[in-house]
Write a structure and sequence with these properties.
Length: 227
């Protein structure tokens, strides 16, 4: 059945892993403590601190203790929703101040524009928060790419290696699963999407030697066809 929508990962797929690890993550770690202390009384930040307390089972955790937990998660690169949400808030300041722009591969920019022009619906699914996703594409090296996308998903729908997450996304998109093509550089994510019935495309930008019959392999976006 023809693909009518593309669901794309970010890190390693549309965007260099080095941008995430060498620019975004260090910026968030450097500014996290001061940001949380300055905004702890604001509802959106307070809600994420409560989510940290719920995650560790410590209802009486102080703000300072919650910051310590968040910094530990950040050092371990944990895919935990309150950390990802707060990182997105911190990155917003960096993008808006012009401290950096969001890296998107040129072939990804061209592919996204080509698919959008052809009438293919585009969606994002990343472990980074929806807010962080919109910031990256909204302040990209190629300008504002957000008009290309019809929706965004993060770990609030579930983990990226869990088939049920892709089933939830399929329901939200409103198309049969086999009409949705998922792009990722991570085999376990592709396996989960395939289990949920989606078509898949494996991005191997660094020329990995591993092979798999389950997922068509692409060096970049130029060989991915939609529709």
């Amino acid at each position: 059945m023809a693909v009518r929508a593309i669901l794309t990962d970010i890190e390693g797929t549309t965007t260099s892993v080095s941008f995430v690890y060498d620019v975004l993550f260090p910026y968030a770690r450097e500014h996290l403590a001061a940001f949380v202390r300055a905004h702890a009384d604001e509802a959106v930040v307070a809600a994420e601190l409560d989510a940290v307390r719920a995650e560790v089972g410590g209802a009486s955790l102080s703000t300072a203790q919650a910051i310590d937990v968040l910094l530990a998660w950040a050092r371990e690169d944990r895919k935990i929703t309150p950390l990802k949400t707060l990182q997105g808030m911190i990155w917003k300041d960096g993008y808006q101040s012009g401290g950096f722009t969001g890296h998107v591969y040129l072939d990804a920019v061209e592919g996204l524009r080509r698919w959008h022009s052809a009438g293919c619906k585009l969606y994002v699914y990343s472990s980074g928060s929806v807010a962080a996703q919109k910031l990256l594409f909204g302040h990209s090296d190629a300008g504002d790419l957000t008009p290309l996308f019809s929706g965004y998903f993060d770990t609030k729908v579930g983990g990226k290696r869990e088939a049920d997450s892709y089933r939830h996304i399929t329901t939200r998109i409103g198309l049969p699963a086999d009409q949705i093509l998922f792009l990722s550089d991570i085999i376990e994510e592709l396996d989960a999407a395939r289990e949920a019935g989606m078509a898949t495309a494996w991005l191997c930008r660094d020329g990995e030697s591993e092979t798999t019959a389950a997922h068509p392999r692409h060096a970049d976006f130029t060989t991915i066809v939609c529709p």
